[in-house]
Structures are given as structure tokens and as C-alpha cells.
Amino acid sequence: MQPVMLTFIWGLLLLLNSASIGFAELVELFWDIGTLNISRDGYSTWKSMCVNNAVPIPPVHVTQGDVLVLNVRNSLNVPTAVHAHGIYHNYTDYYDGAEMVTECGIPPGENFTYIIDTTDQVGNFWLHSHVQSQLTDGLRTPFIVHEKVKPSTYDEEKLLYFEDWDTRSFDEESIIHSMLNVKNIPTAYRMLLINGINGNVTQPVVFVPGKRYRVRVVSLLTVFWLKFRIPGHTMQIIDQDGVACNPVEVDGLDMGPGQRFSILVTAHDTAEFNYKYNVTLYADFFHPSPGIMPRYYSGLIEYHQNAPLKHMPAVSDDQLAWSNTLDLQARDGMPLLPVDRQIVLEVKDYFPELDIPYYTFGDYAYNHTLVPTLFTALTMGDLAFNSSVYGSQSQAHVLHYGESIEVLIYSDNINDHSLHMHAGEYQVVEVGPYGDAAANNRTGVAFKRSGPAPMRCDEITIRSYSYIKLRFRVNHGAIIFFHCHMIHNFKGLAVTFIAAPDLLQKHMKVPDEVIRMCKLQNIKTSGNAAGNAGFNLTGLPPPFLVNRE
User: Fold this and answer.
1) DSSP letter string, 431-496
2) How many CB atoms lie within 10 A of CB 363?
3) Closest C-alpha among 450, 249, 209 to residue 335
4) Whether pTM exceeds 0.90
5) Which of 12, 172, 375, 537 has its CA 20 to 30 A from that of 222?
């Protein structure tokens, strides 16, 4: 058994030999990943993912420029991996945590060290598993990168993070099947946790009269959306997904899985009253059911322990101004990118036998190949520019350095989807209607286009019966995994962008410890998707071709 400390020393030596981060501050954490029988919602006890035999997993805080050294021990009986959601990787994609995309995962009983450099980023991110249902079952926590010097625009910070939580494990509940059976939602289906505990009994958020607060609001949801408000207070959005924006006043945040915002909230001048903040947990693909869907939660904004609660008048959602990424403008003023190439994706669903659905971007459902995609890009020479070597199931699109890419996504699907891009961010350019929403009892999406400095983010919702346009520039070599951040990820709704494989081959050296994780699991680390030379894909399981006739 390899001691955790040896893994840390290996990572530390790698850091000290790196000219770019050799003088960075190290923030060292030790995570022993396992399971624990516990009640997190106050109603049921079952096996939850845990770290160091405890839940909730404490949020991770670092300062910009720090290097997070995350030593992981896998005490599960299956592989695991940790993804730093929203963090870029400058030719260190092997620390991205995407199992069988950029690495092989950590086998049971083994240790591995993730090294995460925050030199170029600041804001709200999160850490979570990228292996099957481990995220859904609780392996997740916020990851906050603070500015080196606190901005003068606020006095203090608060953190609110939200999780959807089942009364049974993912496998027991069979969420994929339940999502389909929209008329028969289990009465205990999906509670809300706020800061790790039942949303209706979480600790108060304490405000001091006259102070201005930066409230970091982080969605760790996996199936549902939420709406967040603080009635009686003004909210200004100042960043989304770690990208600063010009302040925009809103009445509330409408957030999908994986999204993060910072808002400025000014406390009242006196402690005469306490107030409530409200959270609605919802999903448009479920039929409304009183007391079940949507679910309503509230917490206390406490000015004084003995102050009475200020009762605010009820206001319908359609009378409120909700957050919309297209209303935001990037604070750095980066203009709308031109389009060198457009990639068109169409969200489809397919219901084979047993009514367990597949969701796809096109004709093939995404699935892992026999060789992690990163290693294929690194070892196939000039053939790395040919998408065939990655296998049809990887849904690979090869991109060239310097290209500005527009991704146009259509969805005539009854479900909303939250789309996440690894290793970077995209401009959100345009949304509009697509398909016949009215015929499927949906309201539809109105046409809307961004301003001259479109907001950039790494997570965005595409609503049912709509289209969306996203743009990004290829400015370095990377494996960019683009996928739905709901459970649809491992039911096929993903594609892989192979960005500048020639630069990957030139600049990336995969550490021996990354290769060792693969060898322990008998996973090949070179060759095409099947581990062979050239275009010989013998041995690769055939891709799942969706038959929608």
C-alpha cells in the first residue's frame, strides 16, 4: 500500500521543479474518500459519500495564486476521481478528474495527488467526483478562490451552497427511470440541503446593520434547478462561474446544476427586523404536485436574535426580475468573438426497452473508450487531428489553435439540460425558440442576444424546445469535455473537443503517477481509442447508435 505522504512528496517535487508555480503557496489537503451511513436530511439514513469519515465535506478556501495539493485516498471498492469544476488546466489536463477522458481514475485502495494551480483564476468553483453517481451521492463541496486583496466594494462574505438529496442512494432510487415516470414522483424524492444540512433547519445568515455583503451562492445540484431570493433586500450580481461582470440588479437567482454567482447585498440600517431568504427547488420536466414539486425552503437573515420576523408580501415569479446570463456583460470588456467554424449539436432523447432513456448530441450516445482520450491525442502523432482515431462513441471534434468556435445547440427535448465545459469558458451569445413548445405544454423561450461584451461562463442551461449559441477560442492545447451536468452525462449527452493536439504533444508530459493509476487497472495509455495503431479499432465495443424510428 502506498502511503499518502509519498504521493504528496511526489507532487511537491513536481511543483518545485515547475518554473511557473515554484514559489506558490501550497494548500495541502488529505481526503480519504469512503462512505458513511448517516441522515443528512433529518428524515432517512443511508450510505452517503464522505471524506475522512465525515459529512458534509468542508468547503475548500484558497487565495489566488495558491496551489491546492489534494492528496486522495480511495477507500471505496470502485474507482474514484476528483474534478475541480470551473478550473482551467494549462497543459495539466491529467489533473482534470474526468475518468477515461483525461485520466484513468484512482483504483480502490490507492492514493493519488491532484495539483491544482489557481494563478489565473479567482471566484466560486467546486470539487466533485467525476465517476458515475458519486457526485449525486454526496462527493462534492465548494472550492472558493479568494482575491489576494479583498475588494473594497463589500465588508464581509457569506457562503450559501445547495445540494439536492435523495432519501436513497442513486442505485436504489434508479433516478434515471424515475425521471421518466413524471406522473409518479416518490413523495420523498429530492430534498434540499443548504450548507450541508436540511434546508429548513440550516444555521441563520447573520447580517450586521449597515454592512455590505458579498454572498457566494453555489449550486451543487445534480437533477434540479433552484430559485433564490432575499425579499426586502436588493441583490446585485457581480460574477458568474468565476468571471466578473458589470453589476446587474435582480430580484432573484435562477440557477441550474453547477452554476455559481456572487451577489452584493446591503444590510438594512437597523436591527429592527429579521428576514427570510427563500429557495424553490424545481424541475420543469416534472408535473407540479402540491408539497412535492416544486419544494419550498427558507432560511433566516438574522439581524438580532430577538428581533421579530418581517413578513414580506407574496409576489409571483413572473413579476420578478430573475438572473439571466444574457443580461450580463463581462467586466473585462472582451468583445464578441468572430466565428471561424460552427459546430452544430442537437439534443435528442431515445427510449429503448425498459424505458431507460439515452440522451445524445447526434446519432451516437457518448461512452468511454478503452484509452483515455487525452492519451490518444498525445500518442497518435499527426493522426491525432483525425477524429476517427478517438472512436465514434467519444463524439470527438478536433479543433485547431487560434480558431474561434461557435457551438450551436438545438433541443426539441422536453427536458432542460445544464451544459458544462471543462478547461475553459464560453461566451453565451444567443438563445431562441426551437420546435413546438406549445404542443408539448411548455412556455417556450423568447429570442434574446447578448450585448457587445458577452458574459462568459462554464455552465449554462438550455431550456426545452430552444436553441443556444456559445463561442470560445482555442488558445492552448486541451481535452475539453462538454457535457450535460445532470445525470444525463453518463447516459450519453456529451461530446469531446480535442483542442490543438499538436500543442498537447509539444508541451505536455504526463507524470508517471498518472500512468501508474492506469496500469493498476490494466488500462492502455497509448494508441487510438482501442489502444491500437492507426485506424485499427479492433476490440473497441461498438458505439450505441440511437435508432429513433
Assistant:
1) EEE-S-TGGGT------EE--SSB-EESEEEEPSSEEEEEEEE--S-EEEEEEESSGGGGGT-EEE
2) 15
3) 450
4) yes
5) 375
